[in-house]
Backbone:
């Protein structure tokens, strides 16, 4: 009987995922019929209205209160609403990636997307054959970063964590693959795939602001959390340069991509990269970014669950 109930539960969950995915894809397909700006603004308005009724909204508010104890309830709520608007825009932007990303290194007039750190891209292009690691967080439209790198001839293989809903994950994967370089799901064997890219002198990109159950103990916004040690381990193994990069949403539906100078990862007394200290440095960098515009980060994530 227990096995029957277990199998029934799995079957029902699969049906739920399928129905949810069909609904999401149908909505995105309808929005695709609108001009990008109208579709994004509509999704933003709807998400701000519906977000407070989602269960994760309470988690977001709790996380925000811990991160900003000095802020009022009204300020906390405003950040949470900005977050829902940002996440809705990100979802809809998947179907408009080909129309939204208009950055051209040779263009004389700026477009919707601007890049700070062009000199870094040019420098790395000149270091062809040498491995590099980029890291970022779930800020703005982080999907634009590998597309920008490709504009400078820097193919990058990105590590990503697919949604739990496998049908939604397949849809997103197909959409992303059509617009950017290689993608490696965050699952068993991912580290070996990324190591192979670096071993061949390639570039990888890693999102570093999610919980990793077997991660090292670090702190983020003053609270203890677990952080994936993969990036520091790969940097130590291949002794390659590490570059922070992020996307910032600007008024008027514009975007700024910022590629910062390479970071110096902490080393121990023997000159070897210190895994725990480097993981903390990654957290500190992302926290700095989030503090600049907290409404552009995903506060509903269980980042601090131990």
Residues:
């Amino acid at each position: 009987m227990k096995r029957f109930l277990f199998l029934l539960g799995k079957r029902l969950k699969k049906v739920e995922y399928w129905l949810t995915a069909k609904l999401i894809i149908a909505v995105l397909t309808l929005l695709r019929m609108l001009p990008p700006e109208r579709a994004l603004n509509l999704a933003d308005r709807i998400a701000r209205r519906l977000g407070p009724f989602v269960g994760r909204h309470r988690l977001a508010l709790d996380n925000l209160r811990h991160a900003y104890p000095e802020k009022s309830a009204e300020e906390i709520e405003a950040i949470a609403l900005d977050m829902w608007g940002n996440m809705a825009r990100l979802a809809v932007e998947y179907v408009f990636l080909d129309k939204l990303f208009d950055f051209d290194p040779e263009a004389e007039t700026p477009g919707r997307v601007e890049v700070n750190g062009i000199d870094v891209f040019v420098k790395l292009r000149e270091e062809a054959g040498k491995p590099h690691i980029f890291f970022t967080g779930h800020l703005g439209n982080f999907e634009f970063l590998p597309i920008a790198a490709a504009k400078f001839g820097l193919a990058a293989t990105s590590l990503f964590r697919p949604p739990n809903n496998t049908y939604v994950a397949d849809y997103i994967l197909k959409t992303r693959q059509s617009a950017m370089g290689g993608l490696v799901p965050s699952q068993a064997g991912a580290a070996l795939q990324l190591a192979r890219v670096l071993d061949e002198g390639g570039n990888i990109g890693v999102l570093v602001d999610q919980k990793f159950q077997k991660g090292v103990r670090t702190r983020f916004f003053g609270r203890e959390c677990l952080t994936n040690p993969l990036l520091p381990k790969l940097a130590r193994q291949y002794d390659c340069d590490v570059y922070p990069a992020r996307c910032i949403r600007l008024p008027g539906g514009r975007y700024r991509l910022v590629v910062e100078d390479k970071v110096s990862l902490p080393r121990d007394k023997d000159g070897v990269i210190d895994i725990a200290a480097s993981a903390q440095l990654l957290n500190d960098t992302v926290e700095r970014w989030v503090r600049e515009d907290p409404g552009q980060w995903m506060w509903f994530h269980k980042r601090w669950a131990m």
In short: The mean pLDDT is 88. The two ends are 33 Å apart (CA to CA). Residues 131 and 201 are 4 Å apart (CA to CA). Residues 107-296 form one domain.
